UniProtKB/TrEMBL annotation, chain A:
It comes from the Bacteria. This is PqqD family protein.
Automatic annotation (TrEMBL), chain B:
It comes from Fuscibacter oryzae. This is Serine kinase. InterPro entries: P-loop_NTPase. It comes from the Bacteria.
Length: 135, 352
């Protein structure tokens, strides 16, 4: 928890929408929806703050470890080598306000889309147009 | 057929290997016999093709224009056995991984796509604004190409100006338009046709070009329309476009705006909303606001997946549209005239 986490390379792209975050892993084609709590934590991690420093400023009920585990499990972050970035006053205030558990929702819409619309003859990892393996 | 000299490509030092594909471009471009000029989103394209039959497709499907004296983008459709052909690319690794190739070329002037089953290559040089489409033989394109020919090359060219193609249909009334986004089966094409048959306009049923420099504006990129046989009959198109709407590779009728016999359509319109239709078999068509995140998740995945070698850019463009446009989930009714009237009222600002 005291090592900073880096985004798992340029394949990880994300956009924020009114506090919510949508993350895409370009290498897998998998989309993730983050609730506002998860979005704050993600932004802090992306800025180089280490999980241990985040935990120190969160309410005890907030389950950071499970969230970090989900990020690793979905290959969104890797352990970084650089020194962690300190927590800013602004971030401290944001962390103190978090009451919702950070949640990461996985969207497998792309797989559904491939099945639903054969013109879009996609493979989730390879993109389009690559014929998915015939089942 | 003349045996082509292989030009090996691999994910290592790919940009250096791609560069020679453009060798002799000027001479090859000039020698290609068939010329098609078209205009998309304020950009003049000039395509010359070694395959005359491919030019016929371009003329039918693309928004053709009078050739510009100084086209911003030139595209050469070349064949393996043309006299000036210097060789043919050959992927020398076991697999062509789109994402790896995209990442390898990200910071270079090049964009590249390869369809291995047809040995079909598309390459774009962002510095020169020149594109290549290499086909192993005449008509050697993937089955789906005829509905949106040169799609990747058009997108890569427009992406240089902050725009690009998005996977969405459109409906317009007067000087405003909405985008229609959603997965296959959501009713995009049927909604576009319902609108066209009842007085609305459209810039496309599957892809539109987007520019954002002076507000969000949608532009016609392709004149093609498609509809499954059920919808085709339901909309009364059987007699209307008889004999001009052959079934495409996926069993859908494919035809053009011209075949539909509707009045001349606009080239571009400002966009006022993003609509996410779904087939609801509702008594009447209704619009309900949705979040930017929901709109983004309807718009982005298919477009990002379908246009290779520019996925991060498409992701960002879709995010900008979702953030800047109000979005609505549209529960579609069953009567095409009612659906069209609902969209007309929505576009006119008089919807309840």
């Amino acid at each position: 928890m005291d090592k900073r986490l880096d985004l798992a390379g340029p394949d990880i792209v994300f956009e924020e929408f009114d506090g919510d975050l949508v993350v895409l892993n370009l290498s897998t084609g998998r989309y993730f929806g983050f609730n506002p709590s998860a979005a704050v934590l993600w932004s802090a991690l992306a800025a180089g703050v280490c999980p241990a420093d985040l935990q120190a400023h969160l309410a005890p009920a907030i389950d950071l470890a499970t969230f970090i585990g989900a990020l690793h499990e979905n290959a969104l972050v890797v352990e970084g080598d650089e020194a962690p970035t300190p927590v800013t006053d602004d971030l401290r205030a944001q962390l103190a306000k978090l009451t919702e558990q950070p949640q990461l929702e996985i969207y497998d819409d792309l797989s559904d889309l491939i099945v639903a619309d054969p013109i879009h003859d996609s493979d989730a990892a390879q993109g389009w147009p690559v014929r998915p393996a015939q089942g | 057929m003349r045996r082509a000299v292989p030009i090996p490509l691999s994910s290592t030092a790919l940009a250096d290997q791609v560069q020679p594909l453009f060798a002799g471009f000027e001479a090859r471009f000039t020698a290609a016999p068939a010329e098609t000029a078209f205009h998309v989103a304020g950009t003049d394209f000039l395509c010359r093709s070694a395959d005359a039959s491919y030019s016929e497709i371009l003329v039918r499907v693309l928004p053709v224009a009078v050739p510009s004296a100084a086209p911003q983008v030139r595209v050469l459709v070349d064949l393996c056995d043309t006299p000036l052909s210097l060789g043919w690319p050959r992927w020398s690794e076991p697999y062509f991984r789109e994402r790896e190739v995209e990442a390898a070329l990200f910071a270079t002037p090049f964009r590249l796509h390869f369809h291995d089953q047809t040995d079909f290559w598309q390459v774009f040089d962002r510095g020169l604004n020149c594109g290549l489409q290499l086909m192993r033989k005449a008509a050697g394109y993937p089955d789906w190409d005829t509905g949106s020919p040169l799609r990747n090359l058009i997108h890569w060219a427009l992406a240089e100006q902050g725009g690009g193609l998005v996977h969405a249909g459109s409906l317009g009334l007067g000087e405003r338009a909405v985008l229609l986004a959603g997965t296959g089966g959501s009713g995009k094409s049927g909604t576009v046709l319902a609108g066209l048959l009842h007085g609305l306009t459209s810039l496309g049923d599957d892809y539109v070009a987007i520019t954002t420099k002076s507000g969000i504006r949608a532009h016609r990129a392709f004149n093609s329309l498609k509809q499954d046989p059920g919808g085709f009959a339901r909309l009364g198109l059987t007699g209307r476009v008889r004999g001009k709407a052959a079934l495409n590779w996926q069993g859908k009728h494919q035809f053009t705006f011209d075949h539909l016999g509707v009045p001349s359509q606009p080239d571009s319109l400002p966009v006022t909303a993003l609509c996410l239709p779904h087939v609801a078999t509702a008594a009447r068509t209704t619009f309900a606001p949705v979040s930017a995140r929901e709109a983004f998740l309807a718009l982005a995945p298919s477009g990002v997946a379908q246009i290779p070698s520019a996925r991060a850019e498409t992701f960002r463009l879709c995010a900008a549209l979702s953030r800047d446009l109000p979005a609505y989930r549209v529960a579609l009714g069953t009567d095409p005239a009612e659906i069209a009237a609902a969209f007309a009222a929505f576009l006119d600002g008089t919807a309840p």
